Amino acid sequence: MLWSSVPEHSVKRIFIFFYLTTLGIVTASKFTIFELLKIARTCLIFIGILSVLWVLKGSGYGDHGEWTGIYPQKNYLANSMAFGCLVQFVLISRGKSFVKDLSLLLFFAFLLIMADGKGGLLSVIAAVGAYFVIRVKKRPRSVQISATRTFTILIVSVATLITCSGLVLTALGRDPSLTGRTDLWKLLWTYLESRGQLLGFGFDGFWGLYKDRVQNQFEWAGDAHNGYLDVAMSTGIIGGVLILFLLFKTTGRSAISYLSEPSKLKAWPFLFLIFNLVLNISAVTIAPYRGFYWTFLIISLTSVSHIARSPKKSTTSDEAYTPKHLSNSFAG
Q1: Residue ranges per domain, the chain?
Q2: What's the rounded Cα separation, in Å, for the pair 220 and 209?
Q3: What are the tens digits of pLDDT across the range 219-262?
Q4: Nearest to 124, CA basis, from 9, 304, 274, 291
Q5: Pair 238, 222: CB distance under 8 Å
Q6: Which residues pair with 67 in a beta bridge?
Q7: 41, CA 20 to 30 Å: which among 3, 164, 243, 272?
């Protein structure tokens, strides 16, 4: 905020940041992960149903026939349904409700495909793939952890290659410019170079000052369409590197936490962090003003932080992974 191009705009955004961060911490202290995922699933079911009705009504289509549902852009629907797929993957049961749970998973996947959400689909595949890598119980724990870190780096490398390689994108039937994203990124980088790459424009200062000018060239650009670049526009390369380091470090911790007492619920932070690492190559969910996603990210980070500090107890793995007592750790 001290070096912001638009201090008054940054102040408003900082209030939103503190509110959403506090909401995430408080929510993590009041609800278990299981309860939070069920709440999220219920909301996403309503969003999905309303989006289908909106499409049947004749609205809810993008310029190329992809579904946008109740959202103004297809990416919002795609990312929401990708998140829904991840949530339902964790909640799916092998008991009597298996058919219903599988139907919900297929419902979210169907909407994700209809919204042409390749970035969201890749993120889900990466997260689930990483989960199956670390759950191989026959391997020594050290080997599993090493494989997890290697797999995480590989995921981000491959996703970056797909993002930057016009040849690969063309072979996949995708616009080599990622529907204009790469042109947008070049423009934003030019602005960042003119301002100073280390510190950026201050907290959301760039979009407070230049949003209209950018949208004259890219009318769909309400953000950088790349989480790391969007953070860098606010806090410079220093902030971008720090957020990436935080995500990688916490992903490693979440993997170790899961391996100590494997359960699907305990794998949630790891799944969600991998999901975010990949998704933010072509979307923005790690910006502190991204409401729903930022709040869930704080919940996941808080949970991992608490588990890493907590002594082992003689409880079941799912019982141990209930963040209701997180408030005590923050109070102390």
Answers
A1: 1-30+140-310+317-327, 31-116
A2: 17
A3: 877 788 888 888 888 888 888 888 888 888 888 888 888 888 77
A4: 274
A5: no
A6: 61
A7: 243
